Amino acid sequence: MPQRESTQHIVKPTLGVMALMIYGVGNMLGAGIYGLVGKAAGELGNMVWLGFFASMIAAGLTGLSYASLGSRYPRAAGAAYITHRAFGITAISYVVGLAVTMSGLTSLAAASQVFANYAHAIFTGVPIKWVVVVFILTLTVINYVGMRESAWVNAICTAIEAGGLLLVIAVGARYWGSVDYFDASSIKNPGGDFSVSLMLSGAVLTFYAFIGFEDLLNISEEVRNPRRNFPLALLAALGIAATIYMAVCITAVSVVPHAQLAAASGPLVEVVRIAAPWVPPMLFTVVAMFAVTNTALLNHIMGSRLVYGMARQGLLPALLGRLHPRRNTPHVAILLLLIIVLGLALVGDIKALASATSLLLLGSFTLVNLALVVLKRRPGEPRGGFEVPLAVPLGGAGVAVAFIVNRVIDGVRSGELAPVYIAGGIVAAIAVLYLLLRPQAAAVAEVEHPKQVGETE
């Protein structure tokens, strides 16, 4: 029997199915949806809802794989652990783990800049860099205090950001049925000809609205009864986010003509201005600030758990795997993230870096899906609480590869290949770091959820 890890190095299982579901919904419902609806309307016209439906299916394939993996192997640094378990190649796990960490850190740094710009628009006298520093320090303190407290902040932010979208639906619901929702005519498709390629272009554009579910895997050790609760919460979160997105899309094109929606700087603000002129536009600035805060906090939590989990696997220095004796949070990893994110956020514009790390995330999706294929076909590998057919991870891997190829082709056509070069540079830098440090991953024979503090036999 493999030796169990000391309980002082194991995080407490504090999240139930509802808390995890809220965590997932909050991670997917970001401030980006407020502008994304207009961009999608420029591609798909009144059929904008179909783009979100198609991207839900595309993201849902990988979501199903993650749901199955979370029920099988509830571990921090899930992607690194799973790829090592499947392929047994430490280098792959190292690159995957650090690439996903990098995607979270750049997203967090970018979010801090967005929040600071919103705050500066309200309080013009406050220097943007000071807002960035205070914002990141505040998130660090919340993460350090504990997962239960972080979950409460997440729940409040999720209620506010979801409330903003539900307000859009509520004030515009009386306009439903006023247009043809199968009319695909748009600025980029004036003839209105519907095709599979048109639907796929919309799916590519809206796919990133569903990114966020993968973060749940990195906190799966902190979930009570993960075999049951993890897949239930993840799939429910995907379903709730998709339903809200499509209802918002239908409302938007019902209230505002698609061409006007595509040209608007704030499409949903325009919807509310027409449907409910009594609602102050500033309300959506405040809602967007909460949405950005939520995304940033969850990225902070994800990054710290990933670093903590990789340290426990032997992929990073053991110091980063320490837990605070009272807070039971990976305080050393949290402090490291604070230093890195402050550096990223204060250097200036990191849009190209953020775009590049989304490519890395798609690469990790590919490997994680293929890892599930390997694990499902391996004789004697214990089953999880939620199983999917092989077609699901194969489809998820195929979608991720297709999106990577599409991103590269678009970059070649537009001449904007910087994100592709940066993504390649990041992978190369991680590989060099691996060759210099030569970390050795610990054995991964243990399948069951390790005994956690506070659990009973």
Write the layout of secondary structure elements.
Layout: H1 17-28, H2 33-44, H3 48-72, H4 78-87, H5 90-122, H6 128-145, H7 147-172, H8 196-206, H9 226-255, H10 258-263, H11 267-275, H12 282-312, H13 331-346, H14 351-377, H15 391-414, H16 418-437
Helix pairs in contact: 1-7, 1-9, 1-12, 2-8, 3-8, 3-9, 3-14, 3-15, 4-5, 4-14, 5-6, 5-12, 5-13, 5-14, 5-16, 6-7, 6-12, 6-13, 7-9, 7-11, 7-12, 12-13, 14-15, 14-16
Quick tags:
single chain; 457 residues; mainly alpha; Amino acid/polyamine transporter I; 0% strand; disordered N terminus; disordered C terminus
Molecular structure report:
By secondary structure, the protein is an all-alpha fold. It has a single domain (13-437), classed as Up-down Bundle (Amino acid/polyamine transporter I), CATH 1.20.1740.10. The protein contains 16 helices and no strands. Helix 1 crosses helix 12.
